[in-house]
Amino acid sequence: MSDLPIILFEGEEDRSFLAELLKVLGLHEKLEFHKQCGGKDKFKKILEGLVISNRKAIIIVADNDGDPAGAFKNIQRQIGEAGFTIPPKQRETVETPNLPPLSVLMIPWDNDSGCLETLCLSAANPDYKNQLDCADKLVKCAGAEKWPIAKRAKLRMRGFLSAVCKSDPNTGLRYAWSTDERPGDIFPLKGVVAYNQIAEYLKGFAI
Amino acid sequence: MINSIHIENFRCFQKLGLKDFGKFNIIVGENGSGKTALLEAIFLPGNSADVPVVYRNQRGMISPGFSPEKQAYEAMFSDLFFGFSTDLPIEIKIVGSYENLRSARIYFKPITERPLLPEGELKNGRVTDRLFTLQTKDADNKESIQQVNLKGLISAGGEHKQAIIAFVTTGTVGSAHVLAQLLSDIRKNNADGQIQEAVHELFPGISDLSPELTGGLGEIHCKVAGLSKKVPVTLVSHGINKVLCILLFIATHRGGAVLVDEIDNGIYYKAFPKMWEAIIRFCNDFNVQFFASTHSKECLNELRPFIEKNQDMYRLVRTEGENGAGHTARIFKGENFSAALETGTEVR
């Protein structure tokens, strides 16, 4: 039974992004991912199960979407209901007797609105600037400018990835870092400033 | 119902306390982490002083035989003691309802204080000067002392009330005569219907279980679809025999506890749901508390629907390796057990 710190996440694209980032950081053998994800409301059940584990730490990664305070509160509620001490702030590690320490990372960052798509699009490879501009036009001409921020970002990502991945326009964000039949440099991670804060945070658990 | 256990200096446990057992307790843990030792600790109080020999047999060890020489004599028992050191006594205390409340103390008692041996055995200075001693107390504080002499014979004093507890291991399952006796006792009371139905439901090709004599020894026989005469269940399937053994022990230990080591061993994976259904029904009908160890994820996953129906009744007990003071174990509630199985968290 592994005791490595474990990352809980909302969706498979979060796992792909974080796994790739950990590889870049050389930490991929020092942190593990939970087998299951199930959206932003599944954390309570997973935490209840992790009560039996000997993990050195639990890291919850979730999206802020359009309401950072509300999204963090939702995670706090689930943590409390699962019997863990509730972290008062994002990224603060809290201890609970006989349970693994726990911390929450909100994406794109503490109190910034958005989601993983927002973060990744902000750091897309400049070589694909044309496709990104096209995706922005798609948002406009589809009348989606007033959509909630996370939905808007997903539409933008959908259009952008379809334009970039000619061999498979159906490519989802979870496969964006897979070089199999698609460009491997859509969202470069190495040395990209946009990810520095997240990288520093994750490094703190890889002891 | 056993609610808690306190163990000192037994096997790999230097000091261990476990509280809040449930009606159904599943023990998991790596090889060598102490699952079987925990079951042995639960079984030990209230049983007889030959348990060290019984445990050796159950674990497939060859007993070296009894000898008047101190080293050889103590070697028969020393593997029960933490660190193989017999300097400190083994203490086990079980707290629970009246019939299960009891404690045991195992130690080597100087012969000079209680000379139970014939004079002739104490000579040349080569003989042991200590006797393996099991001292137990029951809920009424009645005490018994049993000692094993140099020939392996047990002498007993005080009132020894047998615990209502059974321990199913590979060795027990192989004791065809014991199982035949249990079935015979149940049949004498015309109470074997439930066993017959449960086994037939689990294994539809099997029916009409009966204790029969073969060469003067009892064996449970059964009808097998397609065969003209009854055959011993052990010949049909080890797995069927094992489930039958578990159900027989539950049915004959009303108000007590049944312990099963490696419950999944020998059972086809598709039989797990019906096996659990039968065991849980029997335990509820006969008011029996259940402890079982397993390594099988399939076996655990098939238990999940039953845990979800009544989480309060279930516990997960995980034995863990060396922590500086012997092995340890932790006990978890049914809701955490169920959530871990549901979300794919490794529980073993």
Strand order of the largest sheet of chain A: 2-1-3-5-4
Q: Helicity of chain A, in percent? A: 25-40%
Shape of chain A: globular
Give the percentage of residues in beta strands of chain A: 5-15%
Order of strands in the sheet with the most strands of chain B?
A: 2-1-4-5-6-7-8
Gyration radius of chain A, rounded:
17 Å
Instruction: Please give the number of β-strands of chain B.
Output: 16
**Parts with pLDDT < 50 across at least 5 consecutive residues of chain B:** none
The succession of helices and strands of chain B, N to C, reads EEEHHHEEEEEEHHHEEEHHEHEHHEEH
Characterization of this structure:
The complex is a heterodimer of chains A (207) and B (348). Chain A has 207 residues and is α/β, with parallel strands linked by helices. Chain A contains seven helices and five strands. The model of chain A has no long low-confidence stretch (mean pLDDT 94). Chain B is globular and about 60 Å long. Classes of the chains: A alpha/beta (207), B alpha+beta (348). Chain A binds chain B through residues 1-2, 34-36, 42, 45-46, 48-54, and chain B through 30, 316, 318, 320, 330, 332, 335-337, 339-348.
Task: Name its key features.
heterodimer, A: 207 residues, alpha/beta, 2 domains, five-stranded mixed beta sheet, B: 348 residues, alpha+beta, seven-stranded antiparallel beta sheet, 30% helix, globular
List the helices and strands and how they pair.
The complex is a heterodimer of chains A (about 210) and B (about 350).
Chain A: E1 6-8, H1 12-25, E2 32-33, H2 43-50, E3 58-63, H3 68-81, E4 94-96, E5 99-107, H4 116-122, H5 129-141, H6 149-164, H7 196-203
Parallel strand pairs in A: 1-2, 1-3, 3-5
Antiparallel strand pairs in A: 4-5
Helix pairs in contact in A: 2-3, 5-6
Chain B: E1 2-10, E2 13-19, E3 24-28, H1 35-43, H2 51-58, H3 70-78, E4 90-96, E5 102-110, E6 130-137, E7 143-148, E8 154-158, E9 165-168, H4 170-173, H5 176-188, H6 193-202, E10 206-214, E11 217-224, E12 231-232, H7 233-236, H8 238-251, E13 257-260, H9 272-285, E14 289-293, H10 297-301, H11 304-309, E15 314-320, E16 328-333, H12 334-343
Parallel strand pairs in B: 3-14, 3-15, 9-13, 13-14
Antiparallel strand pairs in B: 1-2, 1-4, 4-5, 5-6, 6-7, 7-8, 10-11, 11-12, 15-16
